[in-house]
Task: inverse folding
């Protein structure tokens, strides 16, 4: 039986990391090592974790872009927002949003239609069910304040005015804006994020994060392709995205995989319902000298249903109910996570077209290996090519060995996944399984390719199992 | 939300309430007239601060007529005034069950809940009060206070601020007696006020028919007891605010507000003694009139009316040491007159009391 690329890593990683990495987090404490896979080293644990209190405090102080909103009557903002949503947001889209968010949007819409009383009642139910949903509290407060007579003689008038002027309100307004925007501007039908050129059905789900919208999109993968099944509000690093160095409080941009699922019992409350580390820095990141680590998708602390759009030290933070849905679905080692500044959406034919060049490169590599032509095979490797393996005693470590390994046998590559990442460079993360003629199973490999001119070259390979 | 007029002393009632009250009043054994007198006596004792006596009288009455809503209500107010909150809650709650059409028990439940920091329960009670009687101004106004506090709390939670709200507790107005029409045949007796006919307050200005229930002959009409004769703030106030500094000025504000409302209430109930007592010794009537002439003038203008209502809206109070200025919109209705005007009262403190020093239109 052929082992799934992911399953092999899963059995390997899950067992190992679950024990140790519960206490390993945050890039500050991350032990530096060349291998991205050495994530579960126990020694970082002793260094202690970043003070979550500090992160929480810093999260609050994150600056919002819209300082002006502090003065604007928030109710008016909500109303405007509701009005703009109402037109284009298809009902289906709203149902896909998490329950609390959908209910919040319903309040906006009611208020936008002038149904003030029902909106107030719904908002009250919402804050009763989610008392820590700060944005919902703000909306409820706005709706109540809208009911007040225009008088300044009430004992609470001054405190209301003062709190409305609180700079932290701007973060909530920004959260509101982003939630509405994500629900208003839906991905075009029958499109996928441009990174997902091909995804093996061994990956049953795929995740894409659009930082500009504070949104995480969850796709279900089948032989019919990727289908968007849900999307959630998320927070990213308080300094934004494009992580470069340790401690820069940015969320990395790139294509990654979930590497483990941490037991929430082993975590501080701060991380909520659980945590899903990703393999930042991946080989491409390492090649470019990016540092840091301990980037997780995790939940929220008990006192906060959601956090500000820019709040974390680089992690992707989701509301706990949303994260729980994700936890049920992800496969360790096999669920890809794309984090983009702003996702581009492409059609299936477009994706196939864009994968042609890498497909022919892979086939060229395979044929060169099978033919035993070392000189020809060497052309596919960059001089600084590195290979890492989960099984350190694995015999092969140099290019020449590939030829011996293949022994001229016919080989079938299957379960191909292409994840395309383009920033300054053009890279491709290719995952596949190989089965030699006459054998029932074989290796799973994850290869990192870099485009040089018109040629694709390998600079890193992981043997998954 | 409809603008909330601020007459704590008056409200209208629906025909169903009236019918219910009449039914309740007439099915008992005691004479209706007697009942009205008993209610008045208890009410007067309460106003005089003789709460124990009032309670004894109320309980004696309820022995005979245990279901009488007005007396049960008065008893609830006495319990409230004497700090027996749980008993008062039980009394008012039972009234809301037995007579769900009455807004007053809901209102007073809300007052108690608010004093216990249970603002959402207070809100629910007030919304019930308003459902039973949409033009019930006191409940509307109380609801405004509660909404403001709930909004303030929601904003604190939105900002994750410390929940120790330093703002002064909103002070909700207690209704001190049910607005019950005096049953037919009742003697006017020693009513403090030859009180206004139950002209619907608030927006429904032109009363469809004056005093629809009470037969006109005895010019009594339905006489609402002089409701809320300036609810004594110390008794009705919910727990005092924890922060002492803002509380001081707030207390002064509340005292002035209470004085203004007492003045309006005395005027509306044509209680000349209380009305004139609202003016301090150094009050100077406008136009160089002597105090004596002015008093006679006022008496003639007030006592002669068959009914008066004085509503106060948009009350703004500024306290400066021993002096205060109260500006508001005064909506005055008497007989066929309906005048809305800006008014400014300049007040002066003497001891615990605030007295009017100057009264002027406009401002």
Result:
């Amino acid at each position: 039986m052929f082992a799934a690329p992911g399953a092999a890593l899963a059995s390997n990683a899950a067992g190992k990391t679950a024990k140790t990495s519960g206490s390993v987090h945050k890039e500050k404490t991350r032990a530096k090592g060349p291998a991205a896979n050495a994530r579960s080293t126990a020694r970082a644990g002793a260094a202690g974790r970043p003070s979550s209190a500090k992160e929480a405090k810093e999260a609050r102080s994150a600056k919002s872009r819209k300082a002006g909103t502090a003065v604007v009557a928030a109710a008016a903002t909500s109303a405007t927002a509701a009005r703009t949503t109402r037109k284009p947001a298809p009902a289906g889209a709203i149902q896909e949003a998490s329950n609390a968010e959908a209910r919040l949007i319903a309040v906006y819409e009611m208020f936008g239609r002038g149904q003030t009383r029902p909106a107030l009642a719904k908002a009250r139910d919402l804050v009763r069910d989610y008392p820590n949903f700060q944005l919902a509290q703000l909306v409820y407060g706005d709706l109540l304040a809208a009911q007040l007579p225009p008088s300044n003689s009430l004992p609470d008038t001054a405190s209301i005015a003062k709190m409305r002027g609180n700079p932290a309100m701007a973060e909530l307004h920004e959260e509101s804006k982003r939630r509405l925007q994500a629900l208003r501007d839906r991905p075009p039908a029958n499109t996928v994020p441009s990174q997902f050129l091909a995804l093996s059905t061994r990956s049953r789900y795929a995740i894409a994060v659009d930082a500009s919208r504070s949104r995480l999109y969850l796709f279900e993968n089948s032989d019919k392709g990727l289908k968007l099944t849900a999307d959630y509000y998320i927070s990213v690093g308080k300094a934004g995205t494009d992580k470069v160095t340790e401690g820069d409080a940015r969320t990395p941009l790139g294509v990654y995989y979930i590497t483990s699922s941490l037991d929430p019992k082993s975590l501080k409350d701060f991380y909520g319902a659980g945590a899903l580390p990703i393999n930042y820095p991946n080989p491409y990141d390492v090649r470019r000298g990016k540092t840091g680590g301990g980037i997780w998708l995790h939940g929220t602390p008990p006192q906060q249903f959601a956090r500000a759009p820019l709040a974390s030290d680089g992690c992707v933070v989701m509301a706990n109910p949303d994260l729980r849905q994700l936890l049920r679905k992800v496969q360790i080692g096999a669920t890809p996570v794309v984090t983009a500044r702003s996702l581009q959406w492409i059609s299936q034919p477009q994706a196939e077209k864009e994968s042609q060049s890498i497909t022919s490169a892979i086939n060229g590599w395979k044929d060169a290996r099978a033919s035993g032509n070392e000189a020809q095979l060497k052309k596919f490797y960059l001089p600084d090519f590195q290979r890492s393996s989960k099984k350190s005693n694995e015999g092969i470590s140099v290019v020449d060995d590939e030829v011996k390994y293949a022994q001229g046998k016919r080989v079938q590559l299957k379960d191909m996944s292409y994840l395309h990442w383009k920033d300054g460079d053009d890279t491709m993360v290719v995952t596949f399984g190989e089965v030699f003629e006459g054998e029932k199973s074989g290796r799973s490999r994850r290869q990192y390719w870099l485009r040089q001119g018109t040629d694709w070259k390998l600079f890193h390979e992981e043997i998954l199992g | 939300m409809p603008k909330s007029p601020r007459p704590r002393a008056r409200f209208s009632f629906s025909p169903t309430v009236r019918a219910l009250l009449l039914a309740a009043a007439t099915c008992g054994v005691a004479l209706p007239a007697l009942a009205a007198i008993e209610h008045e006596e208890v009410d007067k004792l309460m106003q005089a601060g003789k709460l124990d006596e009032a309670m004894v009288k109320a309980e004696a009455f309820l022995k005979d007529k245990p279901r009488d809503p007005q007396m049960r209500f008065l008893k609830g107010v006495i319990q409230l005034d004497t700090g027996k909150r749980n008993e008062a809650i039980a009394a008012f709650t039972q009234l809301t069950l037995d007579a769900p059409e009455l807004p007053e028990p809901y209102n007073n439940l809300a007052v108690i809940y608010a004093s216990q920091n249970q603002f959402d329960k207070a809100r629910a009670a007030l919304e019930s009060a308003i459902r039973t009687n949409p033009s019930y101004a006191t409940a509307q106004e109380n609801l405004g206070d509660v909404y403001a506090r709930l909004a303030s709390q929601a904003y604190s939670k939105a900002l994750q601020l410390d929940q120790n709200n330093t703002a002064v507790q909103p002070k909700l107005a207690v209704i001190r007696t049910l607005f019950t029409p005096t049953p037919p045949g009742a003697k006017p007796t020693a009513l403090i006020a030859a009180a206004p006919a139950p002209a619907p307050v608030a927006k429904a200005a032109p009363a469809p028919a004056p005093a629809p229930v009470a037969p006109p002959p005895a010019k009594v009409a339905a006489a609402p007891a002089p409701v809320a004769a300036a609810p004594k703030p110390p008794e009705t106030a919910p727990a005092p605010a924890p922060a002492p500094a803002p509380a001081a000025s707030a207390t002064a504000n509340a005292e002035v507000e209470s004085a203004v409302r007492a003045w309006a209430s005395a005027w509306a109930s044509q209680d000349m003694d209380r009305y004139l007592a609202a003016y301090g010794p150094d009050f100077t009537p406008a136009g160089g009139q002597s105090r004596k002439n002015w008093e006679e003038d006022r008496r003639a203008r007030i006592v002669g009316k068959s009914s008066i209502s004085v509503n106060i809206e948009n009350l703004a109070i500024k306290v400066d040491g021993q002096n205060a200025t109260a500006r508001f919109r005064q909506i005055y209705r008497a007989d066929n007159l309906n005048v809305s005007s800006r008014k400014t009262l300049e007040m002066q403190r003497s001891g615990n009391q605030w007295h009017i020093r100057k009264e002027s239109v406009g401002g």
